[in-house]
Amino acid sequence: MGIGAGAAGLDPLYERGGTGTGSELPTTDMVLNIGPQHPATHGVLRLRLTLDGERIVNCEPIIGYMHRGAEKLFEVRDYRQILVLANRHDWLSAFSNELGVVLAVERMMGLEVPVRAVWLRTLLAELNRVLNHLMFLGSYPLELGAITPVFYAFRERETIQAVMEELSGGRMHYMFNRVGGLKEDIPYGWLDRAGEASVAVRRRLPDIENLVLGNEIFRARTVGVGRLSPELIAAYGISGPIARASGVDADLRRDEPYLGYEELARDGVLRVVTRTDGDCFGRFSVLLEQVKVSLDLVDACLDRLRSIPAGPVNTRLPKILKVPEGQTYAWTENPLGINGYYLVSRGDKTPWRLKLRSASFNNISVLPEMLPDTIVADMIAILGSMFFVVGDIDK
């Protein structure tokens, strides 16, 4: 009697929303906002979740909280100044962001960069890749409740960071690329110090590997969770470590080589790491293995630079830099995936249009396909394994 009376007295809105799991008492879907300021989103990203109990029915990523209008600002800055803006959208991949812009401008101008600058760029791009991956290797276990790995990851980051800072003067925003080459040559003895940093990180990397990959709690939270099929990868234009963890064997460094990657691939130093499961564990293990590959590439670049005689690292350019009329698209294999710049010039000292294609935007776009029918706890594991930077989404 009491139960029947209580059910009959339910609010009409409560009854109409009923998609509950029990037949005797209807329930309503709950709309839950994760973010825009929330520990699970590691940034100002907002996820609007529709929940049936603890299970996700629908997910709507809401972006734009960090939008700074970089593409419009490109149009009112000259070709030297836009490097400052391009540097910042993915603040964990600053050197790689600069690289795409200068490659596009150099292609339009028909510039040939000195050999020494080509190999230094390759070396610095891989050091930047290691820094990027180490951040996620430390922060992802932290989001699942394991605090220790982040201390190991930051120890290795500081080792690499020290040589990057010595060279460029910057810890995050290096501003070391220039149209036609690099800002300046390396300090005396820097190659040896970079080599020592690579050896130290390689020697201590198993500390993170042993701490995380074999951990039964980490495996329980990640193995088989958040599977992403190759079909969804193709449909949403996902790239980088996330795509390769689903068995998509694609890497611009090998497939459309730039800088010194063609020679490194030919020598067998550049390996493309793939997995087949496409789950959270696979994405994490790809990232870890890619650090090892990048350290191999760093060592190969150091050897190559030691064999190159001293020479210029940049090309002399006019004080006012104007790019010939035309258009080009330059894409690079950034740490988080494909990063592309579509440059249109009308012969002025500023771009008429510079469109940015960032990896993180596509990585987040697939969440509405991945999250339905998962529980909220798994959502945190899935979101962290998508390896994104919010500035790279919002631009």
TrEMBL record:
Its EC number is 7.1.1.-. It is an enzyme of class 7 (translocase). Residues 144-319, 321-395 form the NADH-quinone oxidoreductase subunit D domain. It is found in: Cell membrane. InterPro entries: NADH_Q_OxRdtase_suD, NADH_UbQ_OxRdtase_49kDa_CS, NDH1_su_D/H, NiFe-Hase_large. Keywords: Cell membrane, Membrane, NAD, Quinone, Translocase, Transport. It catalyses: a quinone + NADH + 5 H(+)(in) = a quinol + NAD(+) + 4 H(+)(out). It is a peripheral membrane protein. The keyword Membrane applies. Its main location: membrane. Gene3D superfamilies: Cytochrome-c3 Hydrogenase, chain B. It comes from the Bacteria. The keyword Repressor does not apply. NDH-1 shuttles electrons from NADH, via FMN and iron-sulfur (Fe-S) centers, to quinones in the respiratory chain. The immediate electron acceptor for the enzyme in this species is believed to be a menaquinone. Couples the redox reaction to proton translocation (for every two electrons transferred, four hydrogen ions are translocated across the cytoplasmic membrane), and thus conserves the redox energy in a proton gradient. HAMAP family: NDH1_NuoD. NDH-1 is composed of 14 different subunits. Subunits NuoB, C, D, E, F, and G constitute the peripheral sector of the complex. Belongs to the complex I 49 kDa subunit family. This is NADH-quinone oxidoreductase subunit D.
